[in-house]
Amino acid sequence: MVETRKRPAVRTLARRLEGWYASARKPLPWRDEPGPYRVWVGEVMSQQTTLGVVVPRFEAFVAEIPDVGALSRAQDGTLRRLWSGLGYYARARNLRRGAGYIVDERGGRLPATRDGWSAVPGCGPYTSAMIASICGGERTAAVDGNVVRVASRVMALEDSPWHAAGRRAVERWAQDLVEAARSAGDLNQALMELGQEICRKARARCDLCPVAGDCAARERGIVHRLPPPRPRRRAVEVRLAVVVISGGGRVMLARRTEGFLSGTEGFPLVDEDGDGEGILAHLAARGARRIEDAFRHAITHHRIRASVIALDVGRGRAEAGRILARAGGDRPRWVPRGAVEGGLSTSLDAKAWRARLQTR
Asked: Helix/strand/coil (H, E, C) string of 65-132?
């Protein structure tokens, strides 16, 4: 393991990483113009989404929502449209929530430090460190899964990085490199990009790695074994009913206020293993048609077996509002049938809609 006192070795490793990054880094719009707002949006968009998808959507997003004040005021429809295709819509809501905090609590002034960014709702340790190091030059390590993988292999780390001792070793290693680097922001981005492009989870490209000569795992022939898999949480089985209410050629979408996918817009969801028995009985009494075990879905460690409840209320939308309130939702929006699929923000809703169409 690299230790703080071994400054020459750390400095050499940092220089190699910075040199590689200078020639190999991907051209990204928030790198070319690295203001804190742009870096914040770009980093959040890039989480769990490929860069080929992110870049054009980033450009459209910042063109229409150019600053934190505009983001704090963005309407749901605008935000949903600009985030379309990026998945995990909760990230967009968290961005807006963070922008509201910056406007309300900081008078619209963006933070300059990692601690400042960490106070912003929805801005985690990695994103906070990345913004502070790129935009403020703060010598603070940004550690994500890519950095964990690179560090584990270079050190041939014996402790699991998913447990406290191993995590501390990874963070010390990355922090040493950041402190020895010419540019903390470039070093953090170099480590992230090295893990993403070269030191990959499968089929690592060691022949192209700028620090291959310093990699203990490569020397020992154990690159493929490190890091060990992250421990999985035990799966929880869940039964959900997805309520698709239609009337007058339109279909109701609404904001879900509790339970699974809370805060997103889509079809009301009823937990059949919870207290949903009463609302389901009410729907059945109203003539709703049940599509049993319509599809399977997974959200984190939850394994969902979903049924679809289809109810046509004709033009009696007041009844639909009462059903919605009991199902844990508000802000109903009636969408023409042909436009439903384009208005759905989660894959669970898309599966439910397809199941509904197939059984009409």
From this structure: CCCHHHHHHCCHHHHHHHHCCCCCCHHHHHHHHHHHHHHHHHCCCCCCCHHHHHCCCCCCHHHHHHHH
Q: Report how far residue 341's alpha carbon sits from residue 149's, in angstroms, rounded to the nearest whole number.
A: 38
**Strands 302-312 and 236-247, bridge-based pairing:** parallel
2, 25, 215 from 184: Cα distances, Å: 18, 15, 22
pLDDT recorded at residue 360: 63
- Write out the catalytic residue numbers: 43
CA distance 99 to 67: 9
303 alpha carbon, distance to own chain's centre: 19
The Cα angle at residue 82 between residues 77 and 84, in degrees rounded to 5: 95
**CA-wise closest residue to 244 among 120, 125, 121, 337:** 337
- Bridge-based pairing of strands 302-312 and 269-271 is unpaired
Q: Which of 99-108, 238-247, 328-337 shows the lowest mean pLDDT across its residues?
A: 328-337
Q: Rounded to an integer, what distance in angstroms lies between the CA atom of residue 71 and that of residue 317? A: 33
DSSP reduced 3-state for 242: strand
Task: Name the 3-class secondary structure at 247.
Answer: strand
φ/ψ of 199, rounded to 5, equals -85, 65
pTM beyond 0.90: no
Residue 127 tokens read as 């994103």
At 244, the pLDDT band (50, 70, 90 cuts) reads: very high
pLDDT digits (tens, 9 = 90+) for 42-96: 999 998 778 888 999 999 999 999 999 999 999 888 998 898 888 777 788 889 9
- Domains assigned to the chain: 7-225 (1.10.340.30), 236-358 (3.90.79.10)
DSSP H stretches of helix in the chain: 7-24, 29-32, 36-46, 51-64, 68-73, 76-83, 90-106, 114-118, 125-136, 145-155, 164-180, 184-197, 216-220, 277-285, 317-326, 347-358
The answer to which of 1-15, 79-93, 110-124 has the lowest mean pLDDT is 1-15
What is the token pair recorded at 120?
């912003």
